[in-house]
Amino acid sequence: MGSRSIRERIDWLWQLGRQHSSDFCGPDASLARKRYLAEHPTHLMVLKCMDGRIHIPYATNTPLGIIEPLRNLGGMFHMGWPYLGEVVANSVTDAVERGRRALIIITYHFSKGDPGRGCAGFGYDTAASIRYVQEIKGQMEHTFGSARQTVYPVVFGFETDEDALILHGPGGEWNLAEVEGHPDEETLARELRQLYPDMPGRILADLLPLVVGNIRHIAATRASSRQIAVEHREWVICIGRGFDFLHEPNMALIVGPFSPDLSGPIAMAAGIIRSNMEFGRIPDDGFLLLASAPYREAGMDRARAELKARFLSQFADEVIGREWPDLYPKMIRETAVLDWNTRHLESLGPATA
Ligand SMILES: [Zn+2]
Fold it and tell me: Which listed site, 16, 143, 198, 200, has its alpha carbon 20 to 30 Å from 104?
């Protein structure tokens, strides 16, 4: 990957998008999703850092398309941000009107091997990121009720060396990397109950497969003795939503459209790309700015998505041009919309300023 030209890397990225869509639409995957939802009706959302290493479906062996991901730099969110509040509230309302409950997983991440592999967004300060996500959980409880019988917000840590989840609850902390032997589901469910004494039984039963999946994934990770992705090697800045397919570690920096001040995260992402080039971690022949907005229906919804994607691309273009003028000429801009039903990423062609 490392030595290929920027054009080759971009072609490869679109190929990855096409592959993801065709996997997602295949009968196996779509039936697996339907069955999963029938067995586990709780609506799952996860708030996470833009760091590509944090991929919850992959780390929990959950079919893609079940967990709704919201990504932003450093996993920073505030329910007072108008657009974020809107997205979360709409998603929850949708689920609740269909008789489903919601589990909102708010994550921070760190590396047990080296603090330098932690979250750049928080200056590698794990304690600060935990305080921050606990605050988001408080905002969720303010919004959806502190009895948590319909919407249950939780804080999870994500340890990136082994992809291990650390569950935080009223009953303490549970690091899934420390689970010994091969406990059966009943034992794990009892542990969960101790950790979350007030969690509705339905939500607990739907959280259980994530726990089981993560324990298996940790074991597989250990067995594979995979190389830990130590360094930043990102060469793509993604802005918007619909980047599920980019779960290669350390390839893309994803800036969600949620914060009312997008310029900070965009400038920071561009700064990381610049230092990647400066230190020779990526070729310096170019980087990609990929903007995307998802739509659910043809017509008006798609037309709006097109405008959103173009606006975000133009906005990021201006920020990068202003903040990193020496990096700016190396930018290649591509803009797309994502059909949420098929996960098809459709290019809107090269950007015109
Ligand atoms: Zn991070």
Answer: 16
